[in-house]
């Protein structure tokens, strides 16, 4: 049963990296679709996210805004596509559709902070597939303590990326086994709804289902990646290793 979860990581990775780290993958195919959006509440600012990434300290305003963001963003616009798909054998068109859906979510948040939109790149999806296959083939999970860095680095090397800079590529999420879907099958709408929640978690501090508990809002590192709000030192080191 554990393996049925893992390949789902390919969905989020493909888009989360499309605008930044994967620009080294040479592919110019781009596409955009209108999809759901995530609203960043008042108090959730670029400076607040950067400050946490620099110091590890979250302002009360950022925590409160993140709680509000988790509670108030409820419309995934996932539609009613009940096509049942095997998540370990998604078709190419299904991967592209899910990637574009995720990308639109991320761009909706980026645009609110004055950031340029990311564009879909085929190379990012290929990299995501390689990471997912590393997990699946080696019985690993995105819930492992180090997110299986070894496999991510192998996938990076196979994709023509720098595999010696450590874990700079991963912003991923997996889908848990549930009573409704207890196998590796999901409907397309269910996949989109889960991706929506995953992106919310990344943007708003990693909250669990206990959305009103301020102690559950603990880190905005993923938000820093997706929104381009990491530390200056991180950005300088990244450029150094990738030029």
SSE run: HHHHEHHHEHHH
Spans where pLDDT lies below 50 across 5 or more residues: 1-34, 233-243
**Quick one: how many beta strands?**
2
Biggest beta-sheet profile: 2 strands, antiparallel
What's the N-to-C terminus distance? 41 Å
Helix percent reads 40-55%
**Biggest sheet strand line-up:** 1-2
Structural account:
- It is built from ten helices and two strands, in the order H-H-H-H-E-H-H-H-E-H-H-H.
- With 243 residues, it is mainly α.
- Strands 1-2 form a two-stranded antiparallel sheet.
- Helix 6 crosses helix 7.
Task: Sum this structure up briefly.
The chain has helices spanning 3-6, 9-16, 46-55, 60-72, 92-112, 122-137, 149-158, 188-203, 221-227, 232-242, and strands at residues 84-86, 185-187.
List the helices and strands and how they pair.
Blueprint: H1 3-6, H2 9-16, H3 46-55, H4 60-72, E1 84-86, H5 92-112, H6 122-137, H7 149-158, E2 185-187, H8 188-203, H9 221-227, H10 232-242
Antiparallel strand pairs: 1-2
Helix pairs in contact: 2-5, 2-6, 3-9, 5-8, 6-7
